[in-house]
């Protein structure tokens, strides 16, 4: 995740001065966060040292849902403006969001083992996050098909509609799952003591900021990759028109000879 | 009177491919225009464009007064045109009569129009009650033609209408087209049955490479007249 | 719009009357699922009776996938999409009509499944008003969301495999809500079930409204 | 980090998180490098 040492004169890739700065900042932030999360913050009274997993779990969860919101907003903007950038952003956010959702699920599950005694509990948040994961997989699968089908339509409508419905769906799922569990069982162990303070609170905040930086870095790079994918191999419309019209000349020459 | 079809430098993309790369074409009311050109020249795309199914990426396209650059206008154009394409859009599970009733009523045709269309295409009687799945290719085309006739379109767009039809069917089609024109409709068709289609058409337009650089009059010489 | 919807629904139901796909293929599949659940879960322990609400709705969910696929296979045949676009039918009407046809077919399937659950799982019907209301609301939601996602997947080469992954997570709230409402009704605590029924109705309304608005663009450009 | 309880769980969680982020970041950068050569520089507004 380091930027190239020297910017070669030729094809450079997806990094720019800004992202290199962001990358360095993220790496430094991660080092600092590791120090706080693993060494300098105290263990929790109830969760003991398992609480140290919260400093990666909670920020990734927040960012996963943020990514989801970005995809929905980008899809809405694409439907309004039909500009390529919004289309690319929707996919980039969903892909990065998928990675963060995966990490969130894995760390949550690992945390659950020592705390709850099980890797999986039908906790509302686990259930709805898992469904979010599958929703994102489905959205990305649909987009990849959209890319290959060169139909008459400005491709992307299907993806945009599913993207637009992503956040509402996540919210409905979350709400219903939440309601489902809370009606039938008393609240599970609260994941993080709401009255945490001092170093632990600071570490959590730091985690949110640092993973936010990492998220931004990944999103920018993934956006640029998507942009390049759109452009790669695409000749401009003018060039394509010239080539298409040239068929007439070829046919005429063939007909006369 | 304003031309029914006005295309000026019209460009239409299929994905990124410019299937139409600048079409200039005007079709007056009551005209029968034959489109010809090699496979992949853009004839089908042009007919679909005129039906309001495809957007114009560049240039101007106005059909029956509807500007195709405007999505809403393109959509409202569709109920005024009839497109007979390679695919017939018929439901295999339903009978001939069911299909014609459904598509006719969808376009707001009256029951008398629908019955008249059935009769005109020789589909009354035994054929009407048959399932479309059991029909031959030619009978399917006839059924699709009847669906089209029931709509009473102002602009007929016929993509290879003679294909798959027997001799009677072709004569029937030509009659129906002539009657439609006599009652004020305009027709654009593509065909590889050049002799038959040329006899029907008032004018031939050649399309190659998605352009109409050549507008040649009837009758055509043996050698295709093409402008490089 | 409603004229177009009734025309479309009538056409879809007529296709079903002639092809018998729902009655001869989907309904037996539904019963088969009940039997498979019975074989997989030990029937002697009373699990089936206790879980009958959930099993019923899981079966409905899978049947709805088949019904939705079927509804769009009809249209995909022989250039149906272009034909629909040219037809002059209001897209909102097409959406409502197709959703209504799916609603009717799913409703019939639910009756078959309910009979199956009563006979095979020994479930006793109590709280009938809540059961009926839940069925209506949940089926409307399934039909509306299913029609919307069905047209999304229609016309793609991978539609059979793509539709479940797109649609099932979206329908998870329907499964939860309908199951809870059924459990409440069958457990004699109908009052607990009505809020769930309300949730289902809200879901159905939301998707019906969104589908009515978005279907035109979808039909147009996908 | 003396006598941390659940050290294995904490290590595994953080390890998986950081490694998967690193792999994803690397993959993204690689994809970008591979694609960049196919696109003229004026389309790459950021560089």
Compact summary:
By secondary structure, chain B is an alpha/beta fold. Chain B contains 7 helices and 10 strands.
Q: How would you describe the overall organization of this protein?
A:
The complex is a heterotetramer of chains A (257), B (228), C (222) and D (47). Chain A has 257 residues and is mostly helical. Chain A is built from seven helices and no strands. Chain A has one domain (17-39, 51-186, 194-229). Chain B has one domain: P-loop containing nucleotide triphosphate hydrolases (Rossmann fold, 3-Layer(aba) Sandwich), CATH 3.40.50. In chain B, strands 6-7-8-3-9-10 form a six-stranded mixed beta sheet, with helices on both faces. A four-stranded antiparallel beta sheet of chain B has the order 2-1-4-5, covered by helices on one side. With 228 residues, chain B is α/β, with parallel strands linked by helices. Chain D is rod-shaped. Chain D is mainly α and 47 residues long. Chain D contains one helix and no strands. Chains A and D meet through helix 1, helix 2, helix 3 and helix 6 of A and helix 1 of D.
List the helices and strands and how they pair.
The complex is a heterotetramer of chains A (257), B (228), C (222) and D (47).
Chain A: H1 17-40, H2 54-81, H3 84-116, H4 124-148, H5 157-184, H6 198-231, H7 237-256
Helix pairs in contact in A: 1-6, 2-3, 2-5, 2-6, 3-4, 3-6, 4-5
Chain B: E1 5-14, E2 17-27, E3 32-36, H1 43-50, E4 58-63, E5 66-67, H2 71-77, E6 81-84, H3 96-106, H4 111-120, H5 137-151, E7 155-159, H6 167-182, E8 186-190, H7 194-200, E9 203-208, E10 211-214
Parallel strand pairs in B: 3-8, 3-9, 6-7, 7-8
Antiparallel strand pairs in B: 1-2, 1-4, 4-5, 9-10
Helix pairs in contact in B: 3-4, 3-5, 4-5
Chain C: H1 2-19, H2 21-40, H3 47-76, H4 80-86, H5 91-121, H6 128-153, H7 159-186, H8 190-221
The CATH architecture of chain B can be given as: 3-Layer(aba) Sandwich
The domain tally of chain A reads 1
Secondary-structure class of chain A:
mainly alpha
Mean pLDDT of chain B, rounded to whole units? 86
What labels would you give this structure?
heterotetramer, A: mainly alpha, 7 helices, C: 222 residues, mainly alpha, 8 helices, 86% helix
């Amino acid at each position: 995740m380091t930027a190239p040492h020297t910017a070669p004169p030729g094809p450079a890739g997806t990094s720019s001065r800004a992202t290199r700065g962001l990358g360095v900042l993220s790496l430094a932030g991660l080092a600092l966060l590791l120090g706080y999360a693993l060494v300098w913050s105290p263990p929790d009274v109830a969760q003991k040292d398992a609480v140290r997993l919260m400093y990666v779990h909670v920020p990734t969860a927040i960012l996963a849902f943020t990514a989801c919101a970005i995809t929905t907003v980008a899809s809405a903007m694409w439907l309004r403006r039909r500009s390529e950038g919004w289309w690319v952003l929707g996919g980039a956010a969903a892909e990065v969001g998928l990675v963060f959702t995966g990490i969130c699920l894995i760390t949550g599950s690992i945390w659950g083992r020592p705390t709850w005694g099980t890797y999986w509990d039908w906790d509302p948040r686990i259930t709805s996050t898992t469904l979010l994961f599958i929703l994102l997989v489905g959205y990305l699968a649909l987009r990849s098909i959209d890319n290959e089908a060169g139909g008459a339509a400005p491709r992307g409508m299907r993806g945009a509609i599913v993207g637009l419905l992503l956040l509402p769906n996540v919210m409905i799922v979350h709400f219903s799952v939440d309601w489902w569990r809370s009606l039938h069982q008393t609240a599970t162990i609260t994941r993080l003591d709401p009255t945490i303070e001092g170093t632990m609170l600071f570490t959590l905040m730091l985690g949110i900021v640092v993973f936010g930086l990492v998220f931004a870095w990944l999103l920018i790079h993934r956006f640029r990759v998507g942009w390049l994918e759109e452009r790669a191999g695409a000749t401009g419309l003018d060039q394509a028109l010239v080539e298409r019209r040239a068929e007439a000349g070829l046919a005429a020459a063939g007909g006369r000879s | 009177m304003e031309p029914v079809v006005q295309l000026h430098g019209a460009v239409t993309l299929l994905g990124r491919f410019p299937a139409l790369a600048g079409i200039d074409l005007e079709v007056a009311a009551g005209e029968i225009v034959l489109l010809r050109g090699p496979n992949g020249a853009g004839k089908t795309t042009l007919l679909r464009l005129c039906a309001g199914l495809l957007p114009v990426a560049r240039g101007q396209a106005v059909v029956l007064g509807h500007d195709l650059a405007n999505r809403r206008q393109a959509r409202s154009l569709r109920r005024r045109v009839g497109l007979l394409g390679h695919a017939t859009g018929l439901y295999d599970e339903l009978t001939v009569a069911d299909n014609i009733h459904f598509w006719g009523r969808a376009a707001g045709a009256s029951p008398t129009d629908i019955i008249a269309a059935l009769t005109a295409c020789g589909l009354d009687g035994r054929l009407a009650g048959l399932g479309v799945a059991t029909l031959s290719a030619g009978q399917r085309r006839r059924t699709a033609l009847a669906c089209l006739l029931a709509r009473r379109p102002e602009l007929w767009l016929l993509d290879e209408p003679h294909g798959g039809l027997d001799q009677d069917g072709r004569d029937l089609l030509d009659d129906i087209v002539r009657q439609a024109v006599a009652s004020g409709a305009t027709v654009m068709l593509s065909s590889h049955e050049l002799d038959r289609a040329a006899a029907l058409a008032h004018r031939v337009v050649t399309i190659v490479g998605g352009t109409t650089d050549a507008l040649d009059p009837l009758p055509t010489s043996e050698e295709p007249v093409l402008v490089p | 719009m409603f004229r177009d919807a009734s025309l479309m629904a009538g056409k879809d139901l007529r296709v079903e009357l002639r092809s018998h796909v729902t009655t001869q293929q989907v309904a037996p599949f539904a019963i088969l699922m009940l039997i498979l659940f019975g074989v997989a879960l030990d029937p002697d322990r009373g699990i089936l009776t206790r879980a009958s609400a959930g099993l019923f709705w899981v079966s409905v969910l899978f049947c709805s996938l088949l019904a939705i696929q079927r509804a769009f296979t009809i249209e995909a045949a022989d250039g149906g999409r272009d034909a629909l676009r040219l037809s002059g039918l209001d897209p909102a009407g097409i959406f409502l009509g197709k959703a209504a046809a799916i609603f009717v077919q799913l409703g019939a399937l639910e009756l078959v499944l309910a009979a199956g659950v009563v006979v095979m799982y020994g479930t006793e019907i109590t709280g009938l008003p809540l059961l009926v209301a839940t069925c209506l609301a949940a089926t409307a939601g399934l039909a509306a969301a299913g029609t919307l996602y069905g047209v999304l997947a229609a016309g793609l080469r991978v539609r059979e495999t793509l539709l479940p992954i797109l649609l099932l997570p979206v329908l998870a709230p329907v499964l939860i809500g309908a199951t809870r409402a059924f459990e409440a009704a069958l457990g004699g605590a109908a009052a607990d079930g009505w809020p769930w029924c309300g949730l289902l109705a809200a879901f159905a309304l939301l998707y019906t409204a969104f589908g009515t608005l978005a279907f035109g663009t979808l039909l147009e450009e996908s | 980090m003396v006598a941390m309880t659940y050290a294995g769980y904490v290590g595994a969680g953080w390890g998986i998180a950081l490694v998967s982020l690193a792999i994803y970041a690397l993959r993204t950068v690689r994809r970008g490098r591979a694609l960049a050569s196919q696109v003229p520089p004026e389309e790459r507004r950021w560089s």
